Amino acid sequence: MHTIPHWINGSPLPGTGTGTAPVFNPATGAEQARVVLGGAAEVDAAVRAASAAFETWQDSSLSQRTQVMFAFRQLLVDHEEELARIISAEHGKTVDDARGEITRGREVVEYVCGLGDVLKGSFSDQVSRGVDVHDFRQPLGVVAGITPFNFPAMVPLWMHPVAIATGNTFILKPSERDPSAANFVARLYRQAGLPDGVFNVVHGGKDAVDAILAHPGIEAVSFVGSTPIAKYVHEQATSYGKRVQALGGAKNHAVVLPDADLEFAADHLTAGAYGSAGERCMAVSVAVAVGDAADALAAVLARKANEVRVGPGDAPGTDMGPLVTRAARERVENAVGTAAAQGATVVVDGRGLKVEGHEEGFFTGPSLLDHVTTEMDAYREELFGPVLAIVRVDTLDEAIDVINANPYGNGTALFTASGEAARRFQRRVKVGMIGINVPVPVPMSYYSFGGWKDSLVGDSPVHGPEGVRFYTRPKVVTTRWPRPAQQVTAGFTFPTSS
Ligand code: NAD
């Protein structure tokens, strides 16, 4: 069994006595590796390496940074299969799904390959006689990213290409449950020609996070994970004077109107609910069935849930793999039991599913709950598992009220044939990312990703233009080059233009 080390200053760094944690193969239930757990010493070593690297990286030319990002992008293409298998083996998701997350992450690298355009400042000629104004943006320094288990490649890729391309140096603290993708990416960066110390990985849990939040050498923290930890990270890091972006949990509703193509909607809801075993922040977890749509929709959803093929993520034909840990499976299966006790109808019951040859794996099957109300735990809690709850309402306006009363506001979708309904929905719903006949509306990399309400603490979404803004700060320069003969009188009154 191997131990997964930190990655600091371009090399692996073994643990320094702060312990290790198990990394499981969720499909077999077996421990397959240990990951070192860092604390203040490892974070400090990473900050020292990143600070030294920043001295030169901040002055690298745009073309040098662009070349590194082009090379890195190609390496992500060349090594996609290998990286996808690493992700699948530690997370449990299917290899195809892991390829999907790598592609979506790679798109952020493609966005920053256009760095020259992204970082262009503006110029105002002759704002006063003989005076011009221009602005430009500069990197912050050493910045850190703290990321969740569910997208071990894509979520960090929302952060580090943008931070690094804009001239910062980066410390990644990935999830301790599936840590290997981070080290793999670190090697690709080195191969792409990124100087040592620009990208570092410190593994660990709360101790490593607390050390990052408190370290005076770190200028900004990007966080993606559950809402309670997002709130904690935001509060702590801002109290230390850092810039913070903190994305939290979700409960995503897909509304189905009676005029929708029910077969199409149910297909997409099934994939959106059970893909990646529901362990996506954009997973569809609530189907809001409007009026006459409800009975027919519930019947088609039940048929499709029963057709989902559950198995190991690396087996051909698998639609849905196991959950990430044994504890996650217990939590999800208990939630289905509680829903039944609270009056929901368990239409499809995924509890107790055994996959032949993988009896110790952390599998549960897809569950479908009907007649769920907004008071039930299955509605109120983020279950983060393959459970789809049907809530029945009479009108679109009622559906919008349900969504707006929910504390989360990450993603939502509407299935309809009506442009008028779609327009009303997208204007009134208090959610950051909206799909019209698109179940999992993850924005492209040249837009920014972020929810509303408890799904985003603070006010900064990730990647796209907002990401560039987050990792840079502006300077505005007012310039005068007077000709020797020109009389420019100094005044004691506040300067105005003339
Ligand atoms: P998590 O909040 O448990 O962990 C996220 C990170 O915080 C990890 O790196 C972890 O090591 C660290 N952490 C955990 N407990 C901590 C503590 N007490 N103090 C300090 N740091 C701590 O989240 P997770 O279980 O890894 O991921 C699933 C969650 O992430 C879900 O809630 C999901 O909705 C959310 N998520 C949100 C988005 C989004 O874009 N909004 C994207 C992906 C995942």
Features:
498 residues; alpha/beta; Aldehyde Dehydrogenase, Chain A, domain 1; Aldehyde Dehydrogenase, Chain A, domain 2; 7-stranded mixed beta sheet; 6-stranded mixed beta sheet; 38% helix; 22% strand; globular; binds nicotinamide-adenine-dinucleotide
Ordered list of secondary-structure elements with their pairings:
Elements: E1 2-4, E2 6-8, E3 11-13, E4 20-25, E5 30-36, H1 40-57, H2 62-78, H3 80-91, H4 95-113, H5 115-118, E6 123-128, E7 131-139, E8 142-146, H6 154-165, E9 169-173, H7 180-191, E10 199-201, H8 206-214, E11 220-224, H9 227-239, E12 243-247, E13 252-256, H10 262-274, E14 284-290, H11 293-307, H12 326-341, E15 345-348, E16 367-370, H13 377-380, E17 387-393, H14 396-405, E18 408-409, E19 411-415, H15 419-428, E20 433-436, E21 452-453, E22 456-457, H16 464-470, E23 472-480
Parallel strand pairs: 1-5, 8-9, 8-11, 9-10, 11-12, 13-14, 13-19, 14-17, 16-17, 19-20
Antiparallel strand pairs: 2-3, 4-5, 6-7, 7-23, 12-22, 15-16, 18-21
Helix pairs in contact: 1-8, 2-4, 2-7, 3-4, 3-7, 4-6, 10-11
The protein binds nicotinamide-adenine-dinucleotide (NAD).
The site of nicotinamide-adenine-dinucleotide has 27 residues, from helix 8.
What does this structure look like?
It is a single chain. With 498 residues, this protein is α/β, with parallel strands linked by helices. It has 2 domains: 3-248 and 455-477, Aldehyde Dehydrogenase, Chain A, domain 1 (3-Layer(aba) Sandwich), CATH 3.40.605.10; 252-436, Aldehyde Dehydrogenase, Chain A, domain 2. Helix content is 38%, strand content 22%. The protein has 16 helices and 23 strands. The protein has helices at residues 40-57, 62-78, 80-91, 95-113, 115-118, 154-165, 180-191, 206-214, 227-239, 262-274, 293-307, 326-341, 377-380, 396-405, 419-428, 464-470; strands at residues 2-4, 6-8, 11-13, 20-25, 30-36, 123-128, 131-139, 142-146, 169-173, 199-201, 220-224, 243-247, 252-256, 284-290, 345-348, 367-370, 387-393, 408-409, 411-415, 433-436, 452-453, 456-457, 472-480. It has a 7-stranded mixed sheet with strand order 15-16-17-14-13-19-20, with helices on both faces. A 6-stranded mixed sheet has the order 10-9-8-11-12-22, sandwiched between helices. Helix 3 (80-91) runs antiparallel to helix 7 (180-191) and helix 10 (262-274) packs across helix 11 (293-307). The chain is globular. The chain starts with a strand and ends in an 18-residue tail after the last strand. The mean pLDDT is 97. Bound molecules: nicotinamide-adenine-dinucleotide. Nicotinamide-adenine-dinucleotide binds at residues 146-151, 155, 173, 175-176, 205-206, 209, 224-226, 229, 247-250, 281, 382, 384, 410, 451, 455.
